[in-house]
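re: that complex we talked abt at group meeting.

here r the seqs, copy pasted straight from the sheet so there may be weird spacing, ignore it
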Amino acid sequence: MPPGQPLLRVSDLTLKFGGVTALADVDMSVESGTIHAIIGPNGAGKSSLLNCMSGLYRPTSGSVALRYVADDVGRGRRDQPAASPEADIDSLDIRERALTSLPPHRVARLGVARSFQNIELFDHLTVLENMMLGRHIHMKQNVLTSMLWFGPARRQEIAHREIVEEVVDLLKLQAYRQKPVGTLAYGIQKRVELGRALALQPSLLLLDEPMAGMNAEEKEDMARYILDVHELAGVSIVLIEHDMNVVMDISNRVTVLDFGKVIGDGTPQEVMDNPRVIEAYLGAGAAS
Amino acid sequence: MAVLAVIVIILPFILDDYWLALANTALIAAIGAIGLNILVGYTGQISLGQGGFLAVGAFTSAILTDRLGMPAPVSIIGAVMLTAAIGVIVGLPALRLKGLYLAIATLASQMVILFIVRRWEFLTEGQGFLDVARLEVFGFRLDRANFEQQWYMILLVLAILAALTATNLFRTGVGRSFMAVRDQDIAASAMGVNLTRAKLTAFAVSNGYVGLAGALMAHYTEILSWEKFTLDVSILYLAMIIVGGMGSVAGAVYGAVFITLLPVLVREVADVVGGAVPIIRDQLPAVEHGVFGLTIIVFLIFEPRGLNRIWERIKDWFGYWPFRY
Amino acid sequence: MTAAPEAAPGAGPPAAAPSLLSINNIEVIYDEVILVLRGLSLEVPKGQIVALLGSNGAGKSTTLKAASGLLPSEQGEVTSGSISFAGEDITKMDAPERVKRGLSLCMEGRHVFPHLTVSDNLLAGGYTKAKEAGETLDFVYEFFPKLADMRARTAGFLSGGEQQMLAIGRALMSQPTLLMLDEPSLGLAPLLVEEIFATIAKLNADTGLTVLVIEQNARTALSVAHHGYIMEQGRIMLEDEADALADNPDVKEFYLGVGGDAGKRSYRDVKHYRRRKRWL
Amino acid sequence: MSTFVTLLVIGLSEGAILALAALGFVLIYKATGVINFAQGEFLLIGAYSFYTAFVVMQLPIVLALLVGVLVAVVVGVVVERFILRPMVGQSHISIIMVTIGLASVLSALVQMFYGTQPRSMPPILPRGSVSILGGTVPVNRLWAIVICAVVLGLLTWFFQKSRHGVAMRAVADDQQAAMTVGISVRRVFAMSWALAAISALIAGVTLADITTVEMNIVNFGLLVFPVVIMGGLDSVPGTIVGGLTIGLVTQFVSGYMDPGLAEIVPYLVLVLVLLVRPYGVFGEKRIERV
Amino acid sequence: GGGGAASADSDEPIPIGVIADLSGATGDVGTPYNEGMLAYVEQLNADGGINGREIDAMSNDYAYEVPQAEELYRRYLSDEAVAIQGWGTGDTEALRTRVANDELPFMSGSFSEELTDVEESPYNFLVAATYSDQMRAALNWIAEESGGEAGVAALHHDSPFGTSPVGDGEAWIDEQGLDIDFTSHAMPAGTTNFAGILSQVDSAGAEYIIIQNVASPAAQLARDLKAQGGDQTIVCLNWCGNELFATGAGDAAEGHVMVQPIAPITTERPGHEAILAYADENGMDPADIQVSFVQGWYAMHIMAEGIRHTLDAGEDLTGPAIRESLETMGPIDTGGVIGEGTVEFSADSHRGSTTTGLYEVKDGELAVIEEAVSP
Ligand SMILES: Nc1ncnc2c1ncn2[C@@H]1O[C@H](COP(=O)(O)OP(=O)(O)OP(=O)(O)O)[C@@H](O)[C@H]1O
Ligand SMILES: Nc1ncnc2c1ncn2[C@@H]1O[C@H](COP(=O)(O)OP(=O)(O)OP(=O)(O)O)[C@@H](O)[C@H]1O
Ligand SMILES: [Mg+2]
Ligand SMILES: [Mg+2]
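got the structure back, here u go
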């Protein structure tokens, strides 16, 4: 999807858990090629919104629709660079798909990858295996050839391993390739999780508090990785983050949630100046 | 490695029939345990239904051969496929169940399958057991004198194939998706793993091996009755993978051999010390049972990763010998 | 920052205040091999708020676990040194005993009881002081009116911030004299972080509660604390009054990081930035 | 009608005993997260220890019961201390398997010392039959219902309402956090195992009195699984409803349909329930947030 | 065989494998049966064995599990046993093809009619009336006792052992034109009450309950029957028709009937004397000698006689030789204990006897109703 095009549209999204309304009529739109931050107080529904986007939660009503270029998806051809901005949009076969009716694995197949608020890695697998799972949607799953190993199964493993290695290089994870992720330090695990999502070569990356629990130094590193991913791989990113400094610095657009409702939307500066946002989220201290 | 291979190959020429029969039983168990480990150890879906699945494989193959006159290899393949299919049916509830709920659902399948095996007169023609004709492969009929040796060769080849194919499976995406489901199913689905498909595939693949083990059991023991497939058998197989090492193909093999030989070992010991402690000899089945339980406990407490881990440590030690570390 | 309450830093000379918790030169080893604390000493004077800062993996949480007796549950062990609380040696005491004596820990990552309701969580918190649980409960609800609104909800379904409040409220239920907080702002919105620290300061001012708090968010922590410690690799590297620490150039560089102050560097400008010098 | 009443009362009594045995299981599960496959063997140990005190040592019944309780507590605490405590932090499967191993060991011990032959015991509950609505009903069955109801009530109150009950549930959720609020995790663990063993003792002795003291008690114990799963693993009321349902359904199927089918009917009912409600009738869905 | 135990002029002990149930589903009667066999061997060896050669009876518990029995059988085979004493119907039937292949004479506690087909089971020998014959005798007696018309419910162990006589009983009713309404139910193993099955018996209108099962569950059923005020008469076949049933059920056993081909010790037959002498020597209370013990004793006796005949004939102790001895040696005397008193096999019948006795429980003892009944 060329930059600047609408990529993801959330309309009238409502999500209820029993008596609790986590999201109420949320409308927002993510443009291709941006880093779009979602902020808001705890319990505002940010993670829930992300979960709706990735198919983990089924909303009570409303929809999330993803637009994608037909050729980009599902054929394992995402190793080519994303369509250049100059490409003629009309010549592309752009389709739209409602994510809200899809199970999570189908959403992933459309090129939406994510990380989780509390690291959800495959603890007993190595860093490489975790990242190879990121390649899952691009691989053919054939039990019989897998059992035989020699031939197609082996060739396929090698081909995908090459792509994973690029991600390993990008995120500087070389030293940890064969380590079971469960034993790694928190910061590294966060990076592996990012890597796993990247390995999927997504067109949209959803990150839920990738810097939570990090100190200043690690945050800087993580911010750098996110920017690199955004710039080098041309991925659009939806980012939940509480640290306003990070949000201000790296995001192009910000949506603010409070009690499940959108209370602000715009450029970081616009949002910072929005009195409702200051009152509900930032507090007087941050506004000064 | 080479030494081991030589030992395994000359085994049939040095062991007598009794020990060869044990070896054969262990090889069949190894195939079944590999299957169970795929489901339990690698995919994290607990199954107490192993006994019932073995029964499906065994009776299918026996009936296809004896009543429909199919060649044994064909009926064995038929048994593998049917058992895999039954696995998928039983796996369906697994899609929504977790932990103990799943364990008990598989316990239910064990009970129901066993009930059918006991009560469905068609299976044994009302006799309560089923005779299976001597194995004949491509016109070659095993002879009585070399029965155990010939079976040993057949089973050895099949067990090695089973171990290899299972190992290969976990070098590829399919196997990885099983492990992903085990470690973190939500994340797995967010990475594009179809949980339904992965779990059902795991049930099918696992049961394929179990069906093979069941079919071999039928042809090897030449007689089938429901008592070979009780809940105790399910537990026996779980013990194999616990003792051998969960989530390890080699572990399943070690575990199968160990658990098959355990009662023999207990009996030998009982023969020796029985004079001094008569209760051990007089209550042998109880003692065997108790030792079995104790083995599980001891392994879980002291080496939860099983014989496989112990073996690795030994290899490391010798690898570094004479320098430790 | 408005969060700093009346009980401003420097309300009393720290040296004069008797020490409530004192950790003397302890060593902590996990799994019999991993040496994490290497001779750490620390004093928490009665009635003060003390902040413990340090980078990831420095051993901050381990220090609090050692003080609250949780190490054995993680195969950890204090191999040398001693810990005393209110003049009593508690080095070998088990965790529940310490709670009875007024030492309460609010763990990193909240750790509420997910299947219990909010009110059951609080009641469980008052386990050691069952008789007065009713009154304490009212007190906690007063401090956290939000919890009162959610009392019947299952804790596992609360959002992170809500859970953090619950965790602090639960810790208060045991009527501690020393409250230890492990990264209370983890994953919380700025407003809430402010709120929580304001609450901490208020508790301290109103009830004289002594607080030991670990924080990544050094700026906020130092703004309410009287005294601060900075640790690296299992040792205390620096200790001073909070104000003084906040002005220390090293602290500024490593803990206050980019952003915040005027003339800050943007996250966009940071290239792969590696720590040039360590404290050691 | 007469058959119906007989089956009803017998079904209820078995259901009540089952519920009691299952409650012990649930107690352990809720407090320690351990799935105890040896609960059937706890019934067995209960019945045989009482038998030993009452018949072999010829103690008076009250004393014999006390001995039973003592043995139950000791077994419960020892099992917790030496078998389950080292298993903290291991996977579900490992914990299930360790209790399966324990089950083998316990039943093997009983078999070694008492053999497999049934032993008869002088009656404890009154014998004889009464006629209710035209059905002949053994009196001891009625007594069994009463005893189990009382014990069930006491345990339920303890778990739901008492301070220790809340502590047990807190420990089940997060052991470290429980320690930070001053709950002694070890004490709670020991307490729940001991309570489970005591409830198994009462269930086992009641059962042994209306049948015989024999190894078969274990098979009866296996039924706690359909019971707890059906009711919902962590629900006390669910356990009671589950127990009574299984008791009654089994009895009616065996009386009106096929006694052989009755053996698997609990499992069929269970599967049906799970298809509709994967967490049992009263069970709560596990909290899974990401 | 050249040397070794099988050789005619060897003086080594004669190995016989015993597959016993001590702890399994039928252990209540399996235990005294096994003790009876071993007691006989002990006595025989003490008396100088067979022509000076002792019998080495290797006895192991298989807990009534077929796979265990197979495994034991393989061990006995590798220990060069010359004959096998088995136990249950399931395992005996399961092993018979192997036994035939390995040419090993095989007797067992199972009197299933299936095993009498000499073509199919050339090495199996049945020392007493088959379960089916016992069932027939029971049905004849019921027809007589009830004056013609009767309802009968056959309750059986849920196994080949249990179902073995059920079909034959039904066929017998047709064949003989008996006016008997026949239903059958499997008795679930490990059940805590038989209320369900009894209410089915009730609603089928049966006045007689024939039980083909071991003593303990039968006794429990009798107790349940009494507690629920049922008035049916129980007729126990072979393995529940014994003292264990009478004591296990207590006063609930009174008046029930037993079909038992082996004479209980209380009937004081000449064949019991050896057993009583043995009991006396070993400090056993004669009152503790159960009919299953007697049965085991004589099962071993018959096997020993076959071996003696083989050795007397100067032949090697091979399976075929022993088989031939048993088939050709003529009647074997049991001192009035089994059936009419003697057991005889031939090349086309391995049915050692067809007659059985009928007893009633009176004051906790087995009282004779009729002797040497043949259907
Ligand atoms: N699986 C669930 N079941 C029930 N309620 C839920 C569930 N997930 C979230 N909620 C509720 O929905 C609301 C929004 O939660 P959510 O996790 O989306 O907040 P958030 O904005 O991500 O907060 P935080 O910044 O603390 O992560 C909360 O009140 C929470 O209790
Ligand atoms: N249970 C444990 N077993 C083994 N090592 C541990 C354990 N807990 C902590 N460690 C190690 O001890 C060191 C200090 O950990 P600790 O959690 O105390 O750091 P911290 O300062 O609290 O870090 P953070 O800011 O990430 O919370 C780390 O290197 C960690 O890997
Ligand atoms: Mg969130
Ligand atoms: Mg920490």
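couple things i noticed - Residues 190-207 of chain C form the longest helix (18 residues). Residues 19-102+176-247 of chain C form a domain with the Rossmann fold fold (CATH 3.40.50.300).
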